[in-house]
Amino acid sequence: MLQGLFRNGRCAAAKKLLNEMQDRGQIPSTHTYCVVLDGLCKNGHISEALSVFHTMESNGLNSHISIYSILIDGLCKNGKFDVALGLFDELSFKEMQPDVITYNILIHGLCLEGLLEKAEELLRKMEETGPTGCLPDRVTYNTIVQGCIRRKKCDKAVALLEEMTKNGFSVDASTFSMLLHPLYTTGQDPALLELIQKFVPKENMDVLA
């Protein structure tokens, strides 16, 4: 019911239902709070989401990484990158390990904002955790490559593409589309074609034929 109310933008009704749950002795679980935080963030109620988060903190219920991932995502999508980074930094003080989803959410937000250096810092931090930690995945690399292409940082994009393929990851559909865009707008560029052929899986090259 909470998910349905938030999905339809009925935040006041959702909050009323949450209060009714508590009045009737139904203690919200971590999952319930995940639904509430996600709903508030997606409807732009970031201040209220932070208030709920601090209430959870005082009740000892914010120790699950999914809580942080939802809130960091909402903060990034609403332009509150300093708060999102501060929340991310809190994890180490609480001895909580961010997972690949948390990293990817923050990296995506930073890339959209053009904060590529900070995004790459997080990538390197993931690599430093080693095999037992939280290594970057295909989404991580494609996200940063797309950020570089978007900001016309071609040399950096190429270096990351090389690193990505070396680590066994391939270009996804969104990155492929961004690589193709200059071909459609400026015509056949031999250098660009060579670059695409180098990094794009062979089965995706039919579109260039």
**CATH class call of the domain at 1-96:** Mainly Alpha
The CATH homologous superfamily of the domain at 1-96 is called Tetratricopeptide repeat domain
Helix amount, in percent?
over 70%
* Strand content bin: under 5%
The pLDDT mean sits at 86
The helix-strand sequence is HHHHHHHHHHHH
Tally the helices: what do you get?
A: 12
List the helices and strands and how they pair.
Blueprint: H1 2-7, H2 11-23, H3 30-42, H4 46-58, H5 65-77, H6 81-93, H7 100-112, H8 116-128, H9 138-150, H10 154-166, H11 173-186, H12 190-199
Describe the structure.
- With 209 residues, the protein is mainly alpha-helical.
- The protein has helices at 2-7, 11-23, 30-42, 46-58, 65-77, 81-93, 100-112, 116-128, 138-150, 154-166, 173-186, 190-199.
- It has a domain at 1-96: Alpha Horseshoe (Serine Threonine Protein Phosphatase 5, Tetratricopeptide repeat), CATH 1.25.40.10.
- It is built from 12 helices and no strands.
Name some characteristics of this structure.
209 residues; mainly alpha; 70% helix; elongated
Outline of the structure:
The chain has 209 residues and is mainly α. The chain has 12 helices and no strands. The mean pLDDT is 86.
